Amino acid sequence: MNISFETIGEREVEASASEFLALIQSIEGSSTTWSAAYLMGLVKSEVNLALAVRMQNSELVGLAIVHAVSAINPLILNEPHLFLRRLVISPHFRRAGIGGALMQRVAATIASDARFGSFSKIGWQTNLNNAGGLAFFSTNGFQPVGRITVGSHVDEIFSMDMEEFHRRLK
Ligand SMILES: CC(C)(COP(=O)(O)OP(=O)(O)OC[C@H]1O[C@@H](n2cnc3c(N)ncnc32)[C@H](O)[C@@H]1OP(=O)(O)O)[C@@H](O)C(=O)NCCC(=O)NCCS
């Protein structure tokens, strides 16, 4: 598949926020709490990485957003993490290896950027009903470390040592 990666900064959010938000809405529905201002806040935060995946015709097909947190959840794992806030591939382009390629690009970018050097763990969190997301991360070796109740649903929390992350996604 002929794809390219684009680093998303303030300029890209200003130019393409509606396109990014439409992709997020494709999984969260139109009631998503994500907004252009929220997206801008994330890309402006000091330790962050946002990547878009585009097809050759420039169609947006994927998005990954990672940023620093002091803990994913202080009661479960009270350690600084790079947190995968969003990883989404357009529903029409799934199961073609794009999500895996995007994770590899995330790992390579983190390894080459000194801003991420002090982080020894990477993690993420998802709804237990998200079978596809759980299967994808299990394939990539993430282990569950605990569960939390968020409103009416339960989220699984995952964490991985950064060395392991780089080893697996080389
Ligand atoms: C999770 C997600 C990012 C995966 O993207 P993708 O491009 O389809 O992933 P890949 O094609 O690289 O999949 C790699 C492997 O992961 C596993 N996998 C991925 N999606 C799966 C699914 N729905 N069911 C079972 N296994 C799955 C498979 O082992 C797959 O390899 P295979 O296709 O050769 O069997 C995508 O399904 C998505 O955007 N889901 C909605 C958002 C989400 O759940 N994000 C993650 C939590 S924040």
Automatic annotation (TrEMBL):
Location of the N-acetyltransferase domain: 8-163
What PROSITE patterns has UniProt attached to this entry? Answer: GNAT (PS51186)
Domain of life per record: Bacteria
InterPro entries in the cross-refs: Acyl_CoA_acyltransferase, GNAT_dom
Q: Which Pfam families match?
A: Acetyltransf_1 (PF00583)
Which SUPFAM superfamilies would you find in this protein's record? Acyl-CoA N-acyltransferases (Nat) (SSF55729)
Gene3D superfamilies (alphabetical): 3.40.630.30
Q: Where is the chain membrane-spanning?
A: none
CDD domains assigned to the protein according to its UniProt record, in alphabetical order: NAT_SF
List the protein's name: GNAT family N-acetyltransferase
- Give the source species: Hoeflea poritis
State the organism's lineage. Bacteria, Pseudomonadati, Pseudomonadota, Alphaproteobacteria, Hyphomicrobiales
